[in-house]
Q: What sequence folds into this?
């Protein structure tokens, strides 16, 4: 069953935007445009076009499972959300969660609204098997990106960004300041204890550089950023996950 994606964005002048994507497809990055029943704003417009000149300072994204009157949105969880620039690059990642998530966290950095700026998000429906793993990364120089991979039972899977680049290719010589990791399988990434319970960053030589334990993106609080990585990425580093069922 499809879910609806919603987002709320606060600007530095105190104004706010409501964004919506009805009937979004699971695990697919979907643009959220202006919308909302009964709101005094234009609908169906990209955020950059609708609010040109404003500066976003806080935001949240949530997913609501259709048919919540009979099936609460437990299990439908946010994978990731971000502002996309006119150049096709991710400008800033956004936190959020499932239908019961409350809060509007400050953005890692302000985002200037211009024509061509868009808001994207993706969710994962509940599953008791392998799922989509996502890592939203913010670097010390302000660069942001998202890396994903669909887990395969007992198999090491490389996580890449929307352009198909590995973490080393995309973030070479940059340092991770903070990141959030999501994996929305109901039994977690490593349900039988025989695999690896986190996404893992490795050097070209196979040396383990960092671990990113994921959470389900459907709690009452937004998916948390974990601070203070300051882990330097080199060109041939890789990010991987190994799922178990």
A:
């Amino acid at each position: 069953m499809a879910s609806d994606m919603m987002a709320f964005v606060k600007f530095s002048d105190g104004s706010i935007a409501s964004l919506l994507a009805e009937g979004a497809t699971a695990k697919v990055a979907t643009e959220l445009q202006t919308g909302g029943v009964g709101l005094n704003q234009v609908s169906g417009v990209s955020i950059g076009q609708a609010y040109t000149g404003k500066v976003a300072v806080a935001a949240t994204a949530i997913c609501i499972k259709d048919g919540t009157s009979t099936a609460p949105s437990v299990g439908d969880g946010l994978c990731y959300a971000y502002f996309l620039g006119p150049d096709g690059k991710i400008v800033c990642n956004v936190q959020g969660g499932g239908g019961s998530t409350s809060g509007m966290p400050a953005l890692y950095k302000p985002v200037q609204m211009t024509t061509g700026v868009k808001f994207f998000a993706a969710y994962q429906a509940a599953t008791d098997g392998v799922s989509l793993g996502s890592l939203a990364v913010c670097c010390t120089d302000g660069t942001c990106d998202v890396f994903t991979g669909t887990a395969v039972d007992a198999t090491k899977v490389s996580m890449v960004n929307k352009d198909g680049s590995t973490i080393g290719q995309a973030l070479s010589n940059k340092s991770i300041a903070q990141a959030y990791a999501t994996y929305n399988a109901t039994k977690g990434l490593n349900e039988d204890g025989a695999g690896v319970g986190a996404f893992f960053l490795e050097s070209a030589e196979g040396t383990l550089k960092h671990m990113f334990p994921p959470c389900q993106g459907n709690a009452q609080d937004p998916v948390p950023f974990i601070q203070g990585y300051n882990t330097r990425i080199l060109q041939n580093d890789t990010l991987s996950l190994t799922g178990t069922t």
User: Anything to note?
Assistant: Residues 3-242 form one domain. The first strand starts at residue 3 and ends at 11. The longest helix spans residues 167-171.
